[in-house]
# Entry
Amino acid sequence: MATFLYKLGRLAFRRRHFVALIWVALLTLAGVGAASAPPAGSTSFSIPGTEAQKAFDLLEQRYPGMSADGATARVVFKAPDGEKMTDKANKATVRKTVKELQSGSEVASVADPYAGHAVSKDGTIAYASVKYKVSGMELEDSAKDALKDAGQDARDAGLTVEIGGDALTATPETGSSEVIGIAIAAVVLVITFGSLLAAGFPLLTAIIGVGIGVSTIAALANALDLGSTTSTLASMIGLAVGIDYALFIVSRYRAELAEGRGREEAAGRAVGTAGSAVVFAGLTVVIALVGLSVVNIPMLTKMGVAAAGTVAVAVLIALTLIPALLGYAGRRIKPAGEKSKLLGGGRTPKKPGRPNMGTRWASFVVRRPVAVLLLGVIGLGAAAIPAASLELGLPDDGSQPVSTTQRRAYDLLSEGFGPGFNGPLMVVVDAKDSDHPKAAFTKVGDEIKGLKDVVTVTPATPNKAGDTATITVVPDSKPSSATTEDLVHAIRDKGADITSATDAKVLVTGSTAMNIDVSQKLNDALLPYLALVVGLAFLLLIVVFRSILVPLKAALGFLLSVMAALGAVVAVFQWGWLSGLMNVEETGPVMSMMPIFMVGVVFGLAMDYEVFLVTRMREAYVHGEKPQQAVVTGFKHGARVVTAAAVIMIAVFSGFIGSSESMVKMIGFGLAVAVFFDAFIVRMAIVPAVLALLGKRAWWLPRWLDRALPNVDVEGDGLRTDADRRDPDEEKELVRA
# Structure
């Protein structure tokens, strides 16, 4: 592989105009596609195989035109102090608002609070339920504006009016902190390279890669049913790895220049060596992201595949566009150790010949490996302790900032009707195979009334055929509580008994039941997903490092860092530590998708540092150095770059903490913390300590396996003979290919 990439790097350097034109054309094509594509339609949220999804599908069949997945809204009214919502004037005001709400073309129905008994016992709070024909993502902006404006007359009359429900679903905003993250990345690159031009290349190529990836997602959003979160996460991951991969190539190029090689030769060697590490690091990220499909949640699968596509583009750009840009830069890119004149180049070093920080740190770790290893493991273990209290759930209006009307509507409904009113359960009774459907409907209602934590059970509402009915159950506790989850399981357990007695099937659905099913599905999928991703990457790393213990150590180190990161997420978003600093207004269960998504992304990113850092150690060991000295050599050449890459990733991910979308905020924080733990504690401390203790045993591989594995030559050993080749005919053949 190193030889092929070496030729590719030289070719891209030499044919830079052609390479640059291709990437500009791809960016333009993706941009035109995004601009001309129809806007994204509904982002369906289906969870195949869950009871809640089966109930939704049944409702679509048995209640034609019901729009079971249509958007809903609750317009909540509160009377001024000393007044009641049942007062004549307030009644007239509310009914006028209801009439306004009914005028929308996308409105399916509006329930009058006074006809539907939607007034609190003390008479101070009432609500009107609005049902739409389309989902919240499909709802036109004009319909959302009409919903917001409908209550203005009621507000003018002195009533408090707040609006909840998914009809006001908005596209998440990341805020200015994302720009700050990119600015920090730029500063780190300038410090690392000592050159504005060299620092600009990783940023430029990363932005081009993300532009192509996000534009392609936008172009395909309508056809493939991709949501707004998909492009946000793809840009987050694509930007981070794009900068890192380009950083690895440029850094190795400058190191090759410092050894006296010509610029084209240096570009070829940089792509042949660091490029090999980039390819395998990118493969681990792609495996981790595409592996999310094993969870069998379509939305999560699409997010993973889209982000994986952006990572693949970042790898291709690093291997081709970076050497092309280096060709354009010429002598303006200085060898390693030299700075541009603008940044103080040409000055005499204060302490010539002094080992760099990476060398000094690695030498310290090699001398005291046991102490460093114990300190690192104990520290990460302590950080992981909160993960034992992890509670999973999906957000509702109760997790919104208190400044939003959705959150205020949620609080008013809790005040007037109890906390469980915000998460009613819909029980669907399928009596098609029952001899006495009406009796079955009655029996289900009676059985549910006898359960704990039940406040209200509405009478069964059958369909026209009389073979299916819906029953609404209002719990006594809030939607995200463990008590409500227990109630869902209790109703399903009762349903099994009812089925055996009446032949009627009982299904529990609704947003609360769907959230519970999603959390359970994700929990069940976590271990198989870990086994698949870690297993595939383990096999890949055996090929890269030609070792059993090094990949095993890499996987165990990853588990330490991801558990510590989950502990940090629990401490901030569930326990509320530093919540003010992170702008977390409401603590609660951790997003159900967070652990499995973090495992996928962090594993891929952790392997980036592992591959880049340890391949330099492997390279030194293969070329004759002793194991401990190879560790020091690897840090001498790689520590500065890996440190810069980690700081850049942390800065980019931290930029998404300012997002208005709670899932994006949580993932941004979790990934930033995970990269910190993995890069600075696992890869910079635990890895060299373990390798120092293992010595030659770290690179042990059974002979039969050594013969069976393909030789990918990540260390670039084959370049020792290929470096001096100057075969014009061979190069012409490569150009034709």
